[in-house]
Amino acid sequence: MSAVKWTIKGREFLHCNCAYGCPCQFNALPTQGHCRAIGAIDIEQGHHGTTKLDGLRIAMIVAWPGAIHHGHGQVVAIVDERATPEQREALLRIMTGEDTEPGATFFQVFSTTFEKVHDPVFAKIDIQVDIDGRTARVNIPGVMEARGEPILNPVTSEAHRARINLPNGFEYTVAEVGRGWVKTSGAIELDLKDSHAHFARMHMTESGVVRPTQ
Hints:
2 helices; 14-stranded mixed sheet; mainly beta; DUF1326; DUF1326 domain-containing protein
């Protein structure tokens, strides 16, 4: 068990290069044989020990040459420029899998697959996430511009709704599926168009995802 107790609750937008639905969510290999992705989280409530994290935002840019579990990945962690030094340290410890039980969160699992951890970026993070509407916008000046939208029915052009339910997942329990676009600059440059995205309510601690009560 971790000696430090932490919690983050908020809304997440994640976008990757896989086809809609993302086979990685089902323990299959990525659509193109490799993984490129971004994620952004608007923390509504949170703490790391006695350090409050309410209202802060974090993001990440990640890339692996093959499937995630094959390793050799790289990551850029991005932290809200408004965070105090104590909050920055707390958020980076959470994002790098510190103070977390092994396998409990996607942060911790991913941390074991990175070969290159780039210097963290501290920047202004503008993020809007509508989970039910399957829309999102993320703007980090000079680093990332991303958006998410609903999948459209190819015949009627109406918004299509689909969900992924992972009762034992290490990132979320239920996510709304959509599609996304992103362009990044810096240590990891991505340019992804009209590929998988998901929108989820995040609630996790050092012990893993907190499941909603029925």
